[in-house]
UniProtKB/TrEMBL annotation:
Pfam families: Ldh_1_C (PF02866), Ldh_1_N (PF00056)
Originating species: Lachancea fermentati (Zygosaccharomyces fermentati)
EC assignment: 1.1.1.37
Protein name, UniProt field: Malate dehydrogenase
Protein residues bound to NAD(+): G24, A25, G26, G27, G28, I29, G30, D50, N112, I135, S136, N137, M245
Length: 334
């Protein structure tokens, strides 16, 4: 039994009333992502949407005793998507098809681009003030797709659109700890650029391991950039990174909510509408961003980097510009 003091403390605990929607909640990322959001005390109203299975996932999660209501929505209800989005604070989009062996994130474009475009249109109509967290790959192109759709509907807010690149960050922490024999929870690696292959730039020079042997460093960077291929190969056709991506998505969502609450120094690398390289025709770029009540409060430059990292950045920008233009053209030339 609780003591009188414990009962009083428990009864007066306040939970923040945030509404969060997951679009694609029945998929490989969507299900574990929804579980992690159900366990987040900041989330009191969790809406799950998918073409099928969302109600089953919601019912399953509803049995977990946390201070939130969870509901599932499907298109067969007519207004299922509208109800899932109505007045929500945060929308996460993991919807789409996963990578299979031999596929790059860019190979997913032809399928996932249309899915993301249609979901963005629904967000514009039903949740124009929500923060939108894009997980669906290729993020380098899907984030610009969402931006163009929101612009066409007159509701684009660059401070509330995010490409979730957190998986690159947590991989970097894990992989560098394996190389250096350290505790991964104490490793902090800033990852900038984009969210595929050579556009992913882990800034090893800004870590406590900046003097790492060149051969070891190059192997580490390659593994961070192409870590997703490890998972695709290991799953042997059964999917791509789902559990680690769910953890990354939930971590970033929690940071966005912490920013909404006004917590100080909430800083995460994320792919956003950025001024850093607009003069070079690159409208979106991932770098550390301070999160706050309005979403993006401040975008930080990448800081001092080595000649090797400058070379990586040049290659990144060349590819990233093409990826962004591909997403923008998908909407504007449709």
């Amino acid at each position: 039994m609780f003591s009188r003091v414990a009962r009083r403390a428990f009864s007066t605990t306040k939970f923040n009333p945030y509404k969060v929607t997951v679009l694609g909640a029945g998929g490989g990322i969507g299900q574990p992502l929804s579980l992690l959001l159900k366990l987040n005390h900041k989330v009191t109203d969790l809406r799950l949407y998918d073409l099928r299975g969302a109600k089953g996932v919601a019912t399953d999660l509803s049995h977990i005793p946390t201070n939130s209501v969870v509901r599932g929505f499907t298109p067969d209800e007519g207004d299922g998507l509208k109800e899932a989005l109505k007045d929500t604070d945060v929308v996460l989009i993991p919807a789409g098809v996963p990578r299979k062996p031999g596929m790059t994130r860019d190979d997913l474009f032809s399928i996932n681009a249309g899915i993301v475009r249609d979901l963005a249109a629904a967000i514009a109509e039903n949740a124009p003030n929500a923060a939108v967290l894009v997980i669906s790959n290729p993020v380098n192109s899907t984030v610009p797709i969402v931006a163009e759709v929101l612009k066409s509907k007159g509701v684009y807010n660059p401070k509330k659109l995010f490409g979730v690149t957190t998986l690159d960050v947590i991989r970097a922490s894990r992989f560098i700890s394996e190389v250096e024999g350290t505790n991964p929870t104490t490793e902090k690696v800033t990852v900038v650029g984009g969210h595929s292959g050579i556009t992913i730039i882990p800034l090893i020079s800004q870590t406590k391991h900046k003097l790492m042997d060149k051969e070891k460093r190059e192997a580490l960077i390659h593994r961070i950039q192409f870590g997703g291929d490890e998972v695709v190969k290991a799953k042997n056709g059964a999917g791509s990174a789902t559990l680690s991506m769910a953890q990354a998505g939930a971590k970033f969502a929690n940071s966005v909510l912490a920013g909404f609450e006004g917590e100080r120094d909430v800083i995460e690398p994320t792919f956003v509408d950025s001024p850093l390289y607009k003069s070079e025709g690159i409208d979106f770029f991932a770098s550390p961003v301070q999160l706050g009540p309005r979403g993006v409060e401040k975008i930080f430059p990448i800081g001092e980097i080595t000649a090797e990292e400058e070379e990586m950045l040049a290659k990144c920008k060349e590819t990233l510009k093409k990826n962004i233009e591909k997403g923008e053209k998908f909407v504007t030339q449709a």
